[in-house]
Specification:
Elements: H1 15-33, E1 36-37, H2 38-42, H3 49-68, E2 79-81, E3 89-96, E4 105-107, E5 111-113, E6 116-118, H4 121-134, E7 137-144, E8 157-158, H5 166-178, H6 188-207, H7 211-244, H8 250-276, H9 291-301, H10 304-314, H11 318-334, H12 341-346
Parallel strand pairs: 2-8
Antiparallel strand pairs: 1-2, 3-6, 3-7, 4-5
Length: 357
């Protein structure tokens, strides 16, 4: 997940949004100001060799990415910021009690997002509490280790990147860089899932048949099975909500969700995790599960199969698929029947139904 920097549009927002954006703008400025040129860090004898190696790897991944797509490299990742915390920021995701659906936060120019980010954890907690009390929403907070400003600023390498291994780091960098060459306003789900698709498939192009990639892909195949099962289980809970219809209340929904997590969700995943011989930490068993965290999971997991299917049906490689997407987006903007580019793309997949409203 990414946090999107909104400081450039401060003069266009309401007084309520102004306070939030001012705080995030200050946080972003501090992040930018604390960044040092990679060369300076690489030449500093006090910096550990492991950190230097990760910076060199990121520079190598960046060079490969822009060369692969035959595009001029941006200034992204030319500087590094060493953070005081493990996470760079924190996302607040919210959902209604009686529906698993991410609440949208709207900003001028930048559009709508199914989350809102904070550089300060206490601010995130305070905002989440206000959402619970003032708007009667369920909330969930998660740490963020990477994000993109979508070209509005020169993104830094963050020390939060360094806990990823070599293959994970490459996927992260490819994901983030994809946002610099393709981004659709107001379609966060699509943007994230496309970046996920390109991040994963570019690993094949970069690492080829290296053993570290084979191990990573084997682990990812198991995790994908877990993720698909999570989506199935979340849909089961939503079906239970739907059965109650207009009779469901916030308290009833919360009780139903709590019982579902303890009696169905976690036992099911624990059993599947054991069969796949995966570590429990990799099986979605830790952390808080509620309507908001379920909504967040659905936002970033549900649509990836549809995009992979579309690419396969068109029999396109990564480069040609990107070119096709750009052409289709222009065609989408010219038509008036379908409201979202996501649904427009789904209409291009054989036998793929449009998303429900």
């Amino acid at each position: 997940m990414k946090i999107l920097f909104l400081f450039p549009i401060l003069f266009l927002v309401s007084s309520c949004q102004l306070g939030y954006l001012t705080e995030q703008g200050i946080g972003q400025v501090r992040l930018q100001m604390s960044g040092k040129k990679n060369e300076e860090i690489l030449n500093n004898p006090k910096i550990s060799p492991s950190i230097k190696r990760k910076i060199l790897l990121i520079e190598e991944y960046k060079k490969f990415f822009y060369y692969y797509f035959d595009q001029k490299a941006t200034s992204i990742y030319t500087k590094t910021t060493i953070l005081n915390n493990k996470a760079v920021s924190y996302l607040v995701i919210a959902s209604p009690h009686t529906e698993i659906k991410a609440h949208e936060f709207k900003f001028p120019i930048m559009g709508s997002f199914p989350y809102i980010g904070f550089f300060n954890l206490d601010s995130a907690k305070s905002f989440a509490k206000d959402l619970q009390e003032d708007e009667n929403l369920v909330t969930w907070i998660r740490p963020v280790y990477a994000y993109s400003t979508l070209g509005y600023l020169e993104d830094r390498i963050l020390s939060s990147f360094f806990h990823y291994d070599e293959v994970e780091l490459a996927e992260l960098v490819f994901h983030e860089l994809f946002h610099t060459i393709f981004f659709i306003k107001d379609e966060v789900d699509l943007n994230e899932n496309l970046a996920n698709l390109y991040g994963k498939e570019l690993l094949q192009e970069y690492f080829q048949d290296r053993p570290e990639l084979k191990k990573y892909l084997a682990d990812q195949e198991k995790k994908t099975k877990i993720d698909k099962r999570v989506v199935e289980l979340i849909n089961i809970l939503q079906t239970e909500f739907n059965k109650l219809g207009g009779f469901i209340t916030a308290s009833t929904a919360d009780e139903l969700t709590s019982r579902f997590v303890d009696e169905v969700f976690k036992p099911d995943l624990r059993n599947m995790c054991k069969k796949l011989e995966l570590d429990p930490d990799e099986c979605e068993l830790k952390g808080e599960w509620n309507q908001a965290s379920f909504a967040a999971f659905m936002t970033y997991e549900e649509e990836q199969d549809f995009l992979s299917d579309l690419k396969k049906e068109k029999m396109l490689n990564l480069k040609d698929f990107l070119s096709w997407l750009k052409v289709e987006f222009k065609a989408f903007e010219d038509q008036k029947k379908i409201d979202s580019f996501t649904d427009y793309l789904k209409s291009k997949v054989t036998h793929a139904p449009l998303a429900a409203d």
